[in-house]
Amino acid sequence: MDGILPLYKPKGMTSHDCVFKLRKILRMKKIGHTGTLDPEVDGVLPICLGRATKVAEYITDAGKRYEGEVTIGFSTTTEDATGEVVCQKSVDKIITKKEILRVLEELTGEITQTPPMYSAVKVNGKRLYEYARQGIEVERPSRVVKIYSIELLDEQALYEGETVSFRFRVSCSKGTYIRTLAVMIGEKLGYPAHMSSLTRVQAAAFTLEDCLSFSDVEKLTVEGTIHEVLRPIEMALNDLPKYVISDKLIEKVKNGAILSVPELFKAEKGPIVVTEADGQALAIYQAHPMKEGLMKPTKVLRV
C-alpha cells in the first residue's frame, strides 16, 4: 500500500508507538510518522505508508494548528501537566480578557523559543529528555519560530482564582513548542504557567475530521478496504510549486534525468514537484548544485 493515513493519535502513546501498532495491524514494515507528537498530546498524526514515506518530511515541515489550554499559577519541569511543580504563585489579581488578548497579539509573528529540557531536540548527540531524566541541565539552542495566529477560545471577560485557565487555538510553523508558548504567555501576564492540555487539530492539509482511530483502521483492514481511505502522496506536496511535463519526458523523469529549469521557476530556490498532466507527482527536483540552469531529482516517486 502506498499513501497517507491520517491517524487520530490518542493520549498516552508516542508517535513511535503508533507506527509500531500500525505495522502489526497492517502487516507491513514501510511505515513512518511525520514528526514527534508528545505522548500527552492527542490529535492529527499523518502516517506515511510505502512510497509515501519519501514525502514524510514535507508534512513534517508544513504548518500545524493546535487547540489547547494554558493554566496560570504554577510551572512544571516538563512545561505541561505531567511534570513536577517547580514554581508556584497564586493569581492575586483579576486578569482581564483584554490583557490576555494583548499578550497573544505580542506573541504573534516571529518569536524566539528555547526548547524545554523534556524534548526530543538533540544536543551533543543526545536527546534533551535523556539529560533531563539524569538530572543534568545543558545549554539549549534557541530557535526562531513563526506564530501565524493565536485565538482566545473562551468568552469570559474576567479570570480570577488561585489558578486561572483559558483555552486557545494557535497556527504555527514547524518546530514550535506549544508548551513553551504557554510558559511565555504566563511570563507576560506575570505568573508561572504551563500547558494543561493540547490537541493537534491540523497538520499540513490533514484535519481532525480526516482522521481514523486505531479501531477504524483495524475494521477497514479486516474488511480489506483500508486502501480506499488512504490519501494520495500529492496531498503532502500541496504547498510546493508544480511543473507539469509533457508525455515524452515522463520516462526520463522516472529514470532520474537532469532537466532544464523552466523559465517560470528560475527564481525558485526550494523543491519543485514534477507532475504528469493529471497531477500525479513523478519526482521532486531541486536546482543543480553545480550546473546553473539545470535541476536534478532529489526524490523519484514513481518508477
UniProtKB/TrEMBL annotation:
Keyword tRNA processing applies: yes
Source taxon at top rank: Bacteria
Residue ranges annotated for the Pseudouridine synthase II N-terminal domain, each copy included: 23-178
Domain tRNA pseudouridylate synthase B C-terminal: 179-237
Catalytic machinery residues: 38 (nucleophile)
Enzyme class: isomerase
PANTHER family registered for this protein in UniProt: PSEUDOURIDYLATE SYNTHASE TRUB1, TRNA-PSEUDOURIDINE SYNTHASE
NCBIfam families on file: TruB
Name listed for the protein in its UniProt record: tRNA pseudouridine synthase B
